[in-house]
């Protein structure tokens, strides 16, 4: 099996695993770190309301549990965890920077040295084992001070604050990091706007306008960061990132097929700007139809045009189904995206369709669309794992999921001619689920002894998938 994959993929193919600061790091009150929007995402049914900007939660409430505060405590375990990644043969490790570790409020003039030193130590630990860091500059992370004072990414002022952060990071980690992603799953702003952009919707406002304003500011920031990265270090490679997964029409009824086209466009329209350099006409019409406008400043169109990304990265967990029957459109949910049920596919314990061939379809769709190198930065199975009496964890369901998806990726490379830079599973170690806040929805090859309410030893155990 190992030989089979080595023959298909280039020698410098970046195999590894992926995490995010708010879902694995913990240590929220250490190292002078500030408060972030993602810290305030509670466990339980209110999580979705907060994440969608429908419930205001700008301070901690003693009636709720906030899983990101401890997460799985990578902050104190990073040396042990990276050693385990190396034992698995990782060539890359995707992680994100917690903005409030570097600028606790987001608007300080001087960065926090303790935060900078923490990530420097993490990157050096990676290099000790020959692991290349892949760093997401913004993975659902916004200083709450900026949410409270300027409204998060609603404000164009956020671009200045973000550029200041990125300039510090590019200069400090020159020689340690060369692969960067700007915004994680940028299309998620349409579905989880408080998480993705620090947006809480005020009563009677045009929610679409608030969202489009925020995402335009992120798109301009992404382009300016891409420009900056190339100027600071020619070795830097910058990618965008989208939550992908092709929509199938439920039937061959023309209305279903058209709905699938529209749903797929809603996934890709913002990545289109980052990879092609302009808003496509269908996106402009989509925005106009919702009584919103793109808040272009004088130089924005040139900035977007001249600073497209080097590669396109994406997450894939499952395919989705579009139905022109509105009652069927919300029958199941995959990564917060609504979908009709696909009767031809098995599902995970959380109802996500398992579709390895859909992975190949999505890969080809993205490559045909952008003609840029691709990087699979999230793919994995969330499942309940059981620790046997002898301490072993038999997760053959995860092994099967990943084996079949890697085979589909191999076919995309070998048979379809797609250029793929690397593949990082989500998450290589158990962490907090973004959608539900649970740890019981486990993704890792490494089990962390922690329950949904933060109880446990936080001891690491190897699952069968680790081997």
TrEMBL record:
Q: Which GO terms describe its molecular function?
A: beta-glucosidase activity
List all membrane-crossing ranges.
Answer: none
The domain of life for this entry's organism is Bacteria
Gene Ontology cellular-component terms for this entry are: cytosol
Q: Name one Pfam family in it.
A: Glyco_hydro_1
| GO terms, biological process | carbohydrate catabolic process
What are the protein's UniProt keywords? Glycosidase, Hydrolase
The catalytic site is made up of 378 (nucleophile)
PANTHER family given for it? 6-PHOSPHO-BETA-GLUCOSIDASE (PTHR10353:SF296), GLYCOSYL HYDROLASE (PTHR10353)
Family as reported in the entry's similarity comment: Belongs to the glycosyl hydrolase 1 family.
This protein is called Arb protein
């Amino acid at each position: 099996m190992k030989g089979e994959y080595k023959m298909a993929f280039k020698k410098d193919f970046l195999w590894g695993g992926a995490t995010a600061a708010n879902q694995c790091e913990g240590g929220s009150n250490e190292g002078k770190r500030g408060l972030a929007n993602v810290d305030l995402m509670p466990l339980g049914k209110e999580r979705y309301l907060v994440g969608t900007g429908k419930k205001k939660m700008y301070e901690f409430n003693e009636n709720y549990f906030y899983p990101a505060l401890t997460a799985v405590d990578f902050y104190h375990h990073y040396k042990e965890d990276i050693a385990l990644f190396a034992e698995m043969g990782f060539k890359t490790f995707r992680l994100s920077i917690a903005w409030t570790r570097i600028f606790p409020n987001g608007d300080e003039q001087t960065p926090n040295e303790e935060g900078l030193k923490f990530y420097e130590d993490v990157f050096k630990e990676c290099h000790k084992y020959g692991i290349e860091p892949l760093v997401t500059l913004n993975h659902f992370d916004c200083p709450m001070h900026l949410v409270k004072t300027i409204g998060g990414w609603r404000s164009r002022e956020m671009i200045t604050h973000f550029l200041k952060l990125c300039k510090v990071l590019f200069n400090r980690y020159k020689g340690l990091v060369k692969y960067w992603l700007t915004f994680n799953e940028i299309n998620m702003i349409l579905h989880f706007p408080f998480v993705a952009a620090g947006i809480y919707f005020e009563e009677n406002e045009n929610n679409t306008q608030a969202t489009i304003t925020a995402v335009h500011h992120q798109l301009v920031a992404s382009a300016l960061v891409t420009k900056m990265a190339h100027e600071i270090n020619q070795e830097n490679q910058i990618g965008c990132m989208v939550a992908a997964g092709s929509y199938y029409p439920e039937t061959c009824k023309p209305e279903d097929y058209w709905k699938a086209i529209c749903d797929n466009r809603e996934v890709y329209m913002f990545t289109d700007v980052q990879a092609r350099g302009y808003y496509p006409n269908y996106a402009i019409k989509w925005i106009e139809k919702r009584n919103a406008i793109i808040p272009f400043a004088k130089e924005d169109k040139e900035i977007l045009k001249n600073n497209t990304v080097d590669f396109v990265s994406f997450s894939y967990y499952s395919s989705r189904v579009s139905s022109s029957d509105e009652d069927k459109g919300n029958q199941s949910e995959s990564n917060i995206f609504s979908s009709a049920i696909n009767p031809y596919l098995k599902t995970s314990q959380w109802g996500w369709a398992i579709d390895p061939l859909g992975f190949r379809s999505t890969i080809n769709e993205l490559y045909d669309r952008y003609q840029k190198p691709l990087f699979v930065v999230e793919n994995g199975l969330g499942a309940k794992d059981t620790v046997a009496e002898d301490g072993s964890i038999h997760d053959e369901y995860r092994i099967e999921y990943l084996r079949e998806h890697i085979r589909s990726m191999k076919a995309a490379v070998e048979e379809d001619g797609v250029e793929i830079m690397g593949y990082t599973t989500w998450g290589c170690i158990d962490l907090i689920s973004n959608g539900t806040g649970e740890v019981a929805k486990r993704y890792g090859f490494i089990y962390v002894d922690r329950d949904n309410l933060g109880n446990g030893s936080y001891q690491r155990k190897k699952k069968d998938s680790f081997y």
